[in-house]
Amino acid sequence: MSTLTDNHLLSIFGFDKDNIFVGGTEGTMLHFDGNRWSPMDLKGRWTVKNIWGSAPDNVFAVVTDGRILHYNGNDWSVQETEKLPPMTGIFGLSENEIYACARLGRVLRYDGCEWKFLQTGTETDITRLWGCPEGGMYAVGYDGLILHQEEDRWIRLTVNSNHEFYGIYGFGVDDMYICGSDGIVFKFNGREITKMPTRTMEFFLDVWGPSKEMVFTVGDLGMIMYRDGDQWTQIESNTEEYLTAIWGSSDEDMYAVGDNGLILHWNGEDWSDQAGNE
After folding, report:
1. CATH code matching the domain that covers 9-273, chosen among 2.40.50.140, 2.30.110.10, 2.130.10.10, 2.40.170.20
2. How far apart are CA 238 and CA 2, in angstroms?
3. Whether pTM exceeds 0.90
4. 219-238 residue pLDDT tens
5. DSSP state, residue 91
6. CA 70: distance to chain centroid?
7. For residue 55, with 0-12 CB atoms within 10 Å meaning exposed, 13-18 middle and 19 or more buried, which class applies?
8. Cys-Cys with 202: which of 21, 51, 214, 220 at CB 3.0–4.6 Å?
C-alpha cells in the first residue's frame, strides 16, 4: 500500500521532471519537486478529475463537485463560476484560452478573466479535451462523442462507435489518439477516424506520449500498452491496480497513476512503483 496516500489517483500533469501535480479522491493533490512527493492542501475533500496549467503559478484542476480550482504558486482556491455539473476535463492553449468540460455536454472557456459556457449542441457527457493552436479544440465523451470546435460552434465528427471515450491526446491536427471502453483506440489523421487493433476488451482510461513515435495507453487491471506500428502491444506494469492517467517529461521519465495511491515510474526500460518513496 502506498505510504503517500491510500486514495485513488485520477489525474497527472507536469511542467518538467521537477514539477509534477497528481490529483485524486478525498481532496488528494500531490506535488513532486524532483526529489520527493508532498501533499498539497486543497481546502476541501474534492475529487480531482483533471489538471492543466500554463505555468507553475497558474495551474487549474477540475473536480466532480462542479468546481474549478486554481493554484497561484502558493495556495489552491475555488474559481468563481456559474453553477456547474460534475467537471471531467481541462485543457488550455494559452493562459488566456483555457477550456473545461463536464457532464451533460457542458464546456466552458476561460479568457484570463472569467469562465463562460459555450454552446456544444449536445447533452451527452463530455470526458476530456485536447487541442492545438493550428487546429483548435477537440472534445470526447460518451456514446462515441467526438466534437471539434470551429470558431464559436462545436461540430460532431462522424465515427462508427457508441463507446465511452475517456482520453484524447495528439501531436497536431493530423495525429490524434482517442481511447475508451472495451479496448477501443482510434487514430484521427485530421480526415479519417480509424480503429486500431488492441486485442483486449479492458477499458483504456488515458492516452499520452512524449513523441509521435512513442504513445501509451493505460487502463483497467494495470493495463499499459504502447503503439507498435499500426497496433498496440502490452507492457508489463507489475500491478493489477486500475491505471487512470499518464504523463511524462521525456521518453525516459513517465508516470502512470491509479487506484490506492499507486504511482508508477517509467525509466526507459521498465515500470516501478514510486508511491512508497517519500
Report:
1. 2.130.10.10
2. 15
3. yes
4. 999 999 999 999 999 999 99
5. E
6. 17
7. exposed
8. 220
